[in-house]
Amino acid sequence: MLTSIKTHNLTSEGQKLGMMYFRVAIILFGAQLLMGLIAAIQFLAPGFLFELFDFSVARMVHINALVVWMLYAMIGSTYMMLTEETGHEGVGLGLGKLGFWVLTAAVTVVVLVYIFVQVGAGTEASLWLIHEGREYIEAPRWADIGIVVVVLIFYFNVFATYMKGEKTGIMTVMVANLLALAGLYLAGMFYTDNISMDQFWWWWVIHLWVEATWEVFVGTLAAFALIRLVGAKREIVEMWLWIEVLMLFGSGILGMGHHYFWIGTPEYWWEIGALFSALEPVPLIAMFVHVLYDWGKEQGIAEGKGEAGSVITNGPTMAWIVTNAFGNFLGAGIWGFFHTLPQVNIYTHGTQFTSAHGHLAFFGAYATILIGMMYYGIQKAYDVKILKATFKSKMALFLITFGVLGMTIALTISGYEQVMVERGELGATWNAFFIAQNLPWFIQGILWRAIMGVVTFIGFVYLVWDLLTIGKASQEA
Ligand code: HEM
Ligand code: HEM
Ligand SMILES: [Fe+2]
């Protein structure tokens, strides 16, 4: 079935490699959703798959698969745009292909180990062979080292191609940002038995990824895509890209303080975290306005020239990018800002509210645009001039977005019940936690999360179906 996403029309080796990464990404995305559904059912029926496939395992695979599929899709997107931006066919891509297979074999082994070795002692050996126990990036150390080697190969491909090819602003940001993104992974690799120190460094990976380097990364993707899809002016999108880089790094780096409120780090982080993290939504708003403004302007110009029909050369990619602009703003900007001041966070910390934000932010800021890039890959692979959205594309976009928004709202309601009852009224005791978990508002939120999770999954089925068929269908049309 997967060979039907063909690559033989692609003349660029880099783009072929990009498509290989996309295929694995979409499989892992499916696995992520299935694990989420299992974990969601376990919230409602704690005995479900007990001791066969425990909540701890389902949750862990859910969020690790999330990070890994996004990294795959990010590498895939980079290879997709590399040749087109630099005008060079790519340096060392044979090595890049080898890296792909090594990484994919390692990921498969790691996931199988997670699933089959569920409990056991935490020793030096389990750190090397089973997992490191750091939320989101639990790969054991042998795999960590493998990941670093493969990423170095990937970076060599990108950097060497950049040096030989044309050095556009987009590529310059891409090359510099990827170095920071890859380098940060190292902060999550060493072990200390002081939990505060461990968390301190762990946040360097998670926060500085999603709130700094990944945001800049999707900024470069949006800039690239807007030029390709609607003929946006390069000077304009690049100017915004540079402003975003400046603002994201400014607010994102010290904004990390919002994770240092309660882990045993000094209290000055309260002020630093409050101020800088509260500024974080500013670049997100700029990005949001930028994408919509540019798009509207280009539309207007085209209409003014009396050009017939749409000027968008790839409907599904454009739709997902617009969803990205809204999603990033809502999930990271609004839902993030809600709980980022220490005065608020002392009540919301670690409740379902956090999970609501986590879902909408990861989805809105990253899943959307990465899915959009997959459609861009399909357009190239089938060599179609204008890729129009099909009924399936629309169902996929609608159901996935509606599902994730629904889950977010449901979790926000559960989270507020926790804040009110568990934290506010009963004072955050052990007993208060269990009382709050059993009240109707909490349980209803958890039930609706599961229902909306099913909606999301149906949307995913449409997405895969569409990705497998849209290329051929539009070639015939
Ligand atoms: C796309 C960007 C973002 C993503 C993907 C993201 C994702 C997440 C996730 C998954 C968590 C939970 C971490 C855990 O397991 O403990 C989290 C926590 C948090 N995020 Fe974000 N976030 C983003 C941007 C933001 C922004 C811009 C803000 C502030 C304006 C923010 C504020 C927070 C806060 C305060 C917490 C801690 C919650 C707690 O204390 O329980 N996030 N974020
Ligand atoms: C079928 C749809 C999904 C279901 C049923 C689902 C369910 C769940 C469940 C039950 C958890 C554990 C929450 C906890 O420990 O309290 C979780 C965590 C998480 N999921 Fe999902 N999920 C789904 C889709 C997604 C998607 C599409 C994304 C992002 C693109 C995502 C990102 C996350 C994140 C970041 C966490 C950790 C949140 C935190 O600890 O704050 N999930 N999910
Ligand atoms: Fe953060």
Q: Which terms would index this structure?
A:
477 residues; mainly alpha; 16 helices; 0% strand; binds protoporphyrin IX containing FE; binds fe (ii) ion
Query: Percent of residues in helical segments?
Result: over 70%
| Count of DSSP strands | 0
The biggest beta sheet is recorded as: none
**Looking at the chains present, what oligomeric state does this protein adopt?**
single chain
Number of helices: 16
Helix-strand pattern: HHHHHHHHHHHHHHHH
Ligand species:
protoporphyrin IX containing FE, fe (ii) ion
Strand content: under 5%
Structure description:
- This protein is mainly α.
- The chain has helices spanning 13-44, 55-86, 93-116, 124-129, 141-164, 169-184, 195-230, 234-255, 268-279, 281-304, 315-338, 342-348, 352-381, 391-425, 430-437, 440-476.
- The two termini are 22 Å apart.
- The protein binds protoporphyrin IX containing FE (HEM) (2 copies) and fe (ii) ion.
Give me a quick take on this structure:
With 477 residues, the chain is mainly alpha-helical. The chain has helices at residues 13-44, 55-86, 93-116, 124-129, 141-164, 169-184, 195-230, 234-255, 268-279, 281-304, 315-338, 342-348, 352-381, 391-425, 430-437, 440-476. It is globular and about 65 Å long.
How is the topology of this model organized?
Layout: H1 13-44, H2 55-86, H3 93-116, H4 124-129, H5 141-164, H6 169-184, H7 195-230, H8 234-255, H9 268-279, H10 281-304, H11 315-338, H12 342-348, H13 352-381, H14 391-425, H15 430-437, H16 440-476
This protein binds protoporphyrin IX containing FE (HEM) (2 copies) and fe (ii) ion.
